[in-house]
Design goal:
CATH topology of the largest domain: pyruvate-formate lyase- activating enzyme
Strand content: 15-25%
Number of domains: 3
Largest sheet: 6 strands, parallel
Shape: globular
Strand order of the largest sheet: 2-1-3-4-5-6
Structural class: alpha/beta
CATH superfamily of the largest domain: tm_1862 like domain
Helix content: 25-40%
Number of helices: 13
Length: 451
């Protein structure tokens, strides 16, 4: 009887960048002969791709690792990968002693060697708990490996790390400075993903608009997007996320406006709307620059959907500053808004700032921002009624199909709800007939094409 192939189980926590790394690790394991399982009890290798961004995410990572560790069988190995492993591996090993190894954010290409070594009998006992952290011994000189078959939407990560020095953010401390992936590698990966069935590519990084700066080629993103669009003729949608407000160039706006595959959608995480708060955050504080940039975007693409995220309760946020945020949201009228309560992350400058805001005040301000944005989101959605939009079908739920239009990024935005169960992973023209604050209602358009 042939020996059964070893199995792996991967659980991904955190952001889309982690999802890309998990898919890459899965691909490398499959190329080595491992098979994927969805039940951790059936796996030989257990991998948790951890999130270390906020304390709450760290606690979730530890909880998952501890649960898997407590149920771990003698034949199994448990690997903590990703951001928390890089940021605070000692905390993981102390809290989840069953973890066999740590694998840092840039070391995922070594997953096969690590898994094989840990499973190697006496070698495993000799290795004990090991840590592969920091810079890799050899830079990745090929496109990121991805599964041969994908869902209709896939993330395309174009860089690691970040050059910004936001006072509240831990990311540069464990992901390091910006490391743009080689231009040709990114384009080749986009081609591979499209050939594997992706209808939509979602471009992600800590700051997509800073792509190429570390290679002496600032403002390279427009050229990259143009190359991807030209060399992936089967691609329907190319979506851009995480644009830093000061890096949105006229060239980028022009490429977005003139390239059919690039969606008229942009996520600009602004974090606040009052210049004094933004200065304490070490973020761009020129509100006029932001307003002019958004004016340019809307002039070039009148139908553009804009998303942003904000932090409430930042240290020193006065009532006047908070009102400035509310007024800013009212002025811009974003289509989508995410709101977070400030989390004082150890080691960040913001954690040591005076005048920390009490949790109950943060909670109240969070509710006020959500209440201010909700009627704006509703009005922006109601403005879609009567339009015919192309939608990508994603899931079935209680007799309806959940799909997304160009206005909705995966995992963070709403859906267009279509009666009946349509084939999944397909593009369908939908007439918008009703709207709610977060979702819209559509019906399959008859003999109609999306504008």
């Amino acid at each position: 009887m042939a020996k059964k192939a070893p199995a792996y189980f991967i659980l991904t926590l955190g952001c889309p960048k982690n999802q890309v790394d998990s898919e890459a690790m899965a691909t490398l394991l499959m190329q080595k002969g491992y098979r994927a399982v969805t039940d951790p009890d059936q796996a030989d290798v257990l991998i948790v791709n951890t999130c270390g961004f906020l304390q709450a995410a760290q606690q979730e990572s530890i909880s998952v690792l501890r649960d898997l560790g407590e149920g771990k069988k003698k034949r199994q190995v448990l690997i903590a990968a990703g951001c928390m492993a890089e940021r605070d591996g000692r905390k993981i090993l102390d809290a989840a002693p069953q973890v066999d190894a740590l694998l840092g954010t840039l070391r995922w290409p070594e997953i096969v060697d690590l898994a094989e070594g840990l499973r190697g009998g006496k070698k495993r006992r000799r290795l004990g708990r090991i840590a592969l952290l920091g810079e890799p011994p050899h830079p990745l000189d090929a496109p990121t490996p991805r599964p041969p078959q994908l869902y209709a939407s896939a993330y395309l990560k174009i860089s690691d790390g970040c050059n910004a020095s936001c006072a509240f953010c831990t990311i540069p401390s464990f992901k390091g400075k910006l490391k743009s992936h080689p231009f040709e590698n990114v384009v080749a990966e986009a081609e591979n993903l499209t050939r594997a069935g992706a209808r939509e590519l979602v471009v992600v990084a800590q700051d997509t608009t800073d792509y190429g700066r570390d290679r002496g080629e600032p403002n390279s993103l427009p050229r990259l997007l143009n190359a991807i669009a030209r060399r992936t003729p089967g691609l329907d949608w190319l979506r851009l996320m995480y644009a830093y407000p000061g890096h949105i160039s006229d060239e980028l706006i022009q490429v977005m406006a003139e390239t059919p595959q690039i969606l008229h959608y942009l996520d600009i995480p602004l974090q606040h709307g009052h210049p004094a708060t933004l200065r304490r955050m070490r973020r761009p504080s020129n509100i006029d620059m932001v307003l002019k940039t958004i004016e340019k975007l809307r002039a070039a693409m009148p139908d553009i959907a804009l998303r942003s995220t904000f932090i409430v309760g930042y240290p020193g946020e006065t009532e006047e500053e908070f009102q400035g945020l509310l007024d800013f949201i009212e002025t811009i009228r974003f289509d989508k808004v995410g709101v977070f309560k400030f989390s004082p992350e150890p080691g960040t400058p913001a954690a040591a700032l005076p005048h920390q805001i009490p949790p109950e005040v943060q909670e109240e301000r969070w509710h006020q921002v959500m209440a201010r944005q909700q009627p704006i989101s509703l009005a922006r959605n109601q403005a879609q009624i009567g339009r015919v939009l192309t939608a990508l079908t994603e899931a079935h739920e209680e007799g309806v199909t959940l799909a997304r239009t160009y206005r909705d990024a995966p995992e963070v935005d709403g859906y267009v709800i279509i009666p009946g169960e349509l084939p999944l992973g397909e593009m369908v023209d939908v007439e918008i007939v009703d709207a709610m604050a977060y979702d819209i209602i559509g019906e399959v358009a008859v003999n109609a094409k999306a504008p």
